[in-house]
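Let us practice reading a record.
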Amino acid sequence: MKVVILLGPPGIGKGTVGNILSKKWNAPLISMGDLLRENVKNATSVGLKAEVFMKKGELVPDDIVFEALAGRIKQKDAENGVLMDGFPRNINQAHMLENILNDNDEIVLLNLVASNETLTERLSLRRICIRCGAVYHLKNIPPKKDGLCDICGGELIQRNDDKPEVIARRLEVFRKETEPLIKYYAGKHKMVKISAEGTPEDIIRRIEELGLWG
């Protein structure tokens, strides 16, 4: 199987790009947060373990996270490969990922990059529905009515961590934490850098020109 890791800072569009590629490549996009919440909801053995930490607002330990991931990649829809949304995040997790894969599985790191100005604009204009969690962007995906969710009519708010002064700190932390990971993958697995400037269609076109899938 092929494992394509989508790496990039907050606001780069990993979820948007991942969802489009997931449909084009017929491969599931795996978000570890969503996967853990699904296990908790379904009261699986992994979910029961994870819930203990999630209820306390603590990070779920890596061994539980990878138990969930190991189960997910064995499902039928993942037999040809998966897309990983921003995971692994550090070298220890990269090692653990390799341990649950077979020797002939292929790992590709897709490193999405954009300027700080682009990322700040994307994040600072993002709005979230407080009722249903739907995500909007005042420039790219505006709601039909100012300040109100198209789906449920809930109020749209700006998250505290989407404010410009917080965004700058988030980007700095991301780059410091992921620099070792990028160096690790550059020396061990296939890694490609893709500009995430422009529209989602622009980004997808650049990725597909690389012929990573198939």
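A brief commentary: The two ends are 11 Å apart (CA to CA).
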